[in-house]
Amino acid sequence: MVFLAASIALAAHDFSYQRQFIDYNLRGNSGTVAEPGVVVSIAIPSGACAISDSPAVLILGNRYLSTTPGCPTIVDPYGMFLALNGGVVPPSTSAPAASFTDQWQTYFEEAQYVVLTFPYSEYIPWTTTLETWFRQNYTLVSSSPFAYIYQNRANS
Questions:
Q1: For 72-146, where are the E strands, in sequence order?
Q2: Rounded to whole angstroms, what are the CA distances from 60 to 5, 47, 137?
Q3: 149: helix, coil or strand?
Q4: Residue 5: Cβ within 10 Å count
Q5: With contact defined as beta carbons under 8 Å apart, do 137 and 152 qualify?
């Protein structure tokens, strides 16, 4: 009986923690639930070339598939970070591999939109040069929790 009471108390505490976690992570300053997929579907035209540090956001917004020729398909940015940066886990204080940074710049050059779940996501190997290039070539067109949407000035 004591075990049952302890289990119920623990489950109630666990549920309370989960609820606080969801509230903290999915609610914006206005108290409304963040729905990044909806924001993505409104800000990015259907068929446009969009890439993200979290492809799930593009899938939720029905913008993962592009009709734009040459649009890069990014499946797992975290896995890419591990594979192309010597197995270093993001965030990293060491300089990223040049080839890894060059690959992301190529993606940025080819894409019309970039969706980041957080500004300057840790899954992208930002260097001063890449960040400067990004700022010069992209404009923030929409932002909400988990959906910071940038448009390529030259490739839209």
A1: 113-116, 138-144
A2: 40, 14, 26
A3: strand
A4: 9
A5: yes
- H helix or E strand, kind and range, residue 128: helix 128-137
Contact 75, 54 (CB under 8 A): no
What percentage of the chain has pLDDT greater than the value 90? 44
Instruction: Give the tokens for residue 81.
Output: 């970070």
Exposure string of 51-79, with b = 16+ CB inside 10 Å and e = fewer, is: bbbbbebbebbebbebeeeebbebeebee
Distances (CA, A) of 140 to 5, 81, 97, 99: 52, 24, 27, 26
57-82 pLDDT tens trace: 999 999 999 999 999 988 888 888 88
Q: Would you give the DSSP letter of residue 86?
A: T
Respond yes or no on whether the N-terminal peptide bond of residue 91 is cis (omega within 30° of 0).
yes
pLDDT digits (tens, 9 = 90+) for 94-135: 778 888 889 999 999 999 999 999 888 888 889 999 999 999
Is the C-alpha dihedral spanning 87, 92, 97, 101 positive or negative?
A: positive
